[in-house]
Amino acid sequence: MPQQDAAERIRNFEEVALGYDAATAVDEAERCLNCKNKPCVAGCPVNIDIPAFIELIKAGDFLGAARELKKTNSLPAICGRVCPQEEQCEKLCILGKKGEPVAIGRLERFAADYEAAHAPSTSSGCADGVKPENPDLAKYHVAVVGSGPAGLTVAGDLAKKGYSVTIFEALHKTGGVLRYGIPEFRLPRDILDREIHYVESLGAKIITDVIVGRTFTVEDLLSDGFDAVFVGTGAGAPKLLGIPGENLSGVYSGNEWLTRINLMRAHREEYATPIKIPKNACIIGAGNTAMDCARTALRVGAEQVTIVYRRSRTEMPARAEEIENAEHEGVIFKLLTNPKRFIGDEKGAVKAIECLRMELGEPDESGRRRPIPVENSEFIIEADTVIVALGQNPNPLIRTTTKGLKTESWGGIIIDPETGMTSIPGVFAGGDAVTGEATVISAMGAGKIAAEGIDKFIKKKYGLES
Ligand code: FAD
Ligand code: SF4
Questions:
Q1: What stretches in the chain show pLDDT beneath 50?
Q2: Average pLDDT of the chain?
Q3: 375 & 400 share domain
Q4: Which of 118, 145, 180 is the last residue of a domain?
Q5: 34: Cβ below 6 Å to ligand 2?
Q6: pTM (two decimals)
Q7: Contact at 8 Å (CB) between 183 and 294?
Q8: How many angstroms is it from 141 CA to the middle of ligand 2?
Q9: Is any ligand 1 atom within 6 A of the Cβ of residue 181?
Q10: Do both 264 and 373 map to the same domain?
Q11: Does residue 281's CB lie within 6 angstroms of at least one atom of ligand 1?
């Protein structure tokens, strides 16, 4: 895949991966065997008919391919960029057994981008012929809490069926992690805006700056005329290390760091959001959030950026492509290393990290080898900025303001996996609010299940055919 040169791209926020041209896309599509039993589809949480859209690319019908994708996925240009295909559809591609799997994600991105470039009104509007399946359903109202990929999917699917859908979003902008977490050099904002606009054009209404649980509660929504509520509030509460010095100035959570830049535009002169340009930035963790923090730190002008991770490269949870990108951009990886405490200067600002070396023992409950501290192995890394990127748990607001809502001890909302319904009839949930931090496509898969669950629930409630 062509890419912006590493030396060039660390000075800008423009997209790194440049995408296929038509000839390359057709060549790649021609590798697909159009397998009868479609093994790749089983790896896709939203069940895209992968061989069908690839066949259309082979035939040169790129707009047809985009339409095929949108039958089950309202956000194909996003998924084509950020989904971990190597762990999903591409992992099951028959060609991957002996060589390279078909580059399904890149083909998905190509078709969606082609549509945007060549038929912009159809990709951003409802003009691609998607009409509500049953306009009589418009008298039933569904509230969706949160405009991340889970909420957008529920809203899109129910609007397509004909329901009146309103999304309530706490922030002043839509998209959830797609906007405040994933940086624009991986997901350009015009692409995000375009696909969110597509969901709106299907009929979903979006109201921003509404914090459900504060402005009004889930119960208020049910008593105010909504027939069902979907909770897709994600996992925005950062996990902390719980070590000395975590409150020093210059120590950020991954979410705070990324939000300041991605949502509050701290790197742009015309915005007032404060940010300190790091000399030595250390990022704790090795997931997608950690890679995004490291690569944004480089782009805002950090002289040196280091990932500190307690296991080895094999166990790093980030997408392989993002780890490679970070490496090419000059991020240093200090593996088998765990912070013990953050050290501050006389003004209370972080200046260094005391670390311990680790070795790997037997696999733990996560299946990954357990890191074990090596005795007396303490050493110091200089750092004037530390970003703790260890993942997120669900925010407690909905849990604490919704009577009768059952949750796990760590905060995940408990649902019936078949329908997405919570312990409260008519209240559904999905995405990171249920699973803890996962992936865009798993949140979308959960949104699809909940949309079906809500459809059945409302039809049963009003004695309509199912
Ligand atoms: P979210 O995207 O978190 O959206 C939840 C929305 O609900 C937010 O907009 C929030 O403001 C809103 N909300 C919360 N509480 C309320 C309330 N009380 N009232 C109203 N609105 C509320 N996954 C991938 O597949 N590929 C990647 O490359 C990738 N990179 C990532 C990088 C980062 C930095 C992070 C943090 C995550 C990444 N992920 C990635 C994970 C992925 O983004 C999430 O799994 C996915 O966004 C979850 O979707 P969601 O809709 O459940 O929640
Ligand atoms: Fe094509 Fe691979 Fe899917 Fe077979 S498994 S249909 S080769 S993408």
A1: 123-127
A2: 92
A3: no
A4: 118
A5: yes
A6: 0.92
A7: no
A8: 40
A9: yes
A10: yes
A11: no
